[in-house]
Design a protein that fits this description.
Elements: E1 5-8, H1 12-23, E2 30-34, H2 49-52, H3 57-60, E3 72-75, E4 79-83, E5 88-91, E6 96-98, E7 101-104, E8 108-110, E9 123-124, H4 129-136, E10 144-148, H5 152-163, E11 167-172, H6 179-182, H7 184-196, E12 200-203, E13 207-211, E14 218-221, E15 226-228, E16 231-234, E17 238-240, E18 256-257, E19 263-265, E20 271-277, E21 282-283, H8 300-318, H9 321-329, E22 337-342, E23 345-351, E24 358-364, E25 370-376, E26 379-386, H10 389-394
Parallel strand pairs: 1-2, 1-7, 2-3, 7-20, 9-16, 10-11, 10-16, 11-12, 18-21
Antiparallel strand pairs: 4-5, 5-6, 8-17, 13-14, 14-15, 19-20, 22-23, 23-26, 24-25, 25-26
This protein binds flavin-adenine dinucleotide (FAD).
Residues 8-9, 11-13, 33-36, 43-44, 46-47, 78-79, 105-108, 126-127, 153, 241, 244, 279-280, 297-299, 302, 338-340 line the site of flavin-adenine dinucleotide (FAD).
Amino acid sequence: MTRPVLIIGASMGGLRVAESLRRSGYAGPIVAIGEETHPPYNRPPLSKEVLAADVNHEAVAFPLGEAVADVEWILGRKVERVDLENQVVTDDLGVEHQYEALVIATGLRPRRLDLPGMPKKGTHVIRSLDDAIALRSEISEGTRVVVYGAGFIGCEVAATAKKLGAHVTVIGKGPVPLLRPLGLELARDIQARQEAQGVNFFMGSTITKVTGGDQVESVLLDSGVELYTQVLIEAIGSEPNLELLHDNDVDLDGGVGADSSLRVLRKDGTVWQNVYVVGDVARFPIPQFCDYPRRVEHWNIPTEMARKVGKEVALQLSGDTNAFEEEISKPFAPIPSFWSDQFDVSLLAYGLIDQADEITLLDGEVGSDCIYGYYKRGELVGVCGVGMRSKVMGYRNQVGLTHA
Ligand SMILES: Cc1cc2nc3c(=O)[nH]c(=O)nc-3n(C[C@H](O)[C@H](O)[C@H](O)COP(=O)(O)OP(=O)(O)OC[C@H]3O[C@@H](n4cnc5c(N)ncnc54)[C@H](O)[C@@H]3O)c2cc1C
């Protein structure tokens, strides 16, 4: 029997790989194993409009088109172990799955607060549909909500909870929310806009204790302030899902290490010929923006990676060595992009803003619609706009280091 292309992680990255394989002419078997019970769905709405409305799978599901109708989806099943030498993975029921080529698309999981005696009820994270459903059921008019973490997910959930009528306080370690992804001036502006809508901020603060037995009652800050709350949302970052690869010779330093064509790296920097990685979990070279390999947790990245990986795997398995080598020689060179919606503020960005050593207002005015440019060594590595969408899009092809 022909061994399949096996995809671990049945979410956006996994689905896009399956689609790309078929588009690239691969007609053999594809198996996708996913820990969640839901077929692939879109995560960004989970902290935005879907959380404010009725959260269900239908509202966020990706359409499964004709091209992937014959993919075998094994859902609600976690891959516990991968054996790259013997080309076999083992799931949590002990079932072994052999493969011809393997794609890792396991994404991230939320980092949790590591404090003794954390209450079980009222404490939440938001990464999955089930997380969003659980959170939604606890927020209504007048609910006291504390959001710990002032990154994009924290700020978006704060805005959504406020729109639902909750009393919302955001606690963050830095001086302003969103400092790293936006820079000081725009970050201050976003905080002011959130405050104008009634969200409270305790910046420069750390939670030292969470009180309550079974149900969260309050959080204590390092300043001694105690905030009473019914809901605590932990939005303090994410960890890559790597454990399944631990027993293998793989570079797992902060993500699954990949070469410029997204093949998984051994610790000595050579590649596993038939093992690829896509999505948030991948740590890959992106020299047009950054001097070191890194993860990029933006929505456009899994899709663009999957387009390339699907093509590479299809060519590799077709036996057309020349065409495969040609595709492998083309480095993956995406332009990262993200958006964020908070109240009536729509942010759109291209490039890697956190690389900037200088930030300039390019258009508009602070506090209104505006565009910021982010420079590294004098070259534009990112743009971010509040509103002015078509103008921001006009910068898309201008970002990147020309020396790369
Ligand atoms: C709440 C939220 C809001 C977001 N908003 C935005 C936004 O506004 N703009 C933007 O650009 N990006 C946003 N993102 C980021 C974007 O959604 C991600 O970049 C994208 O979902 C990554 O896709 P992925 O397929 O790599 O990983 P994931 O979508 O995380 O999928 C990985 C899948 O693998 C499964 N898995 C993990 N380990 C195993 C295992 N051992 N065995 C089997 N299955 C496993 C997981 O359960 C999961 O289903 C947001 C993310 C979240 C969570």
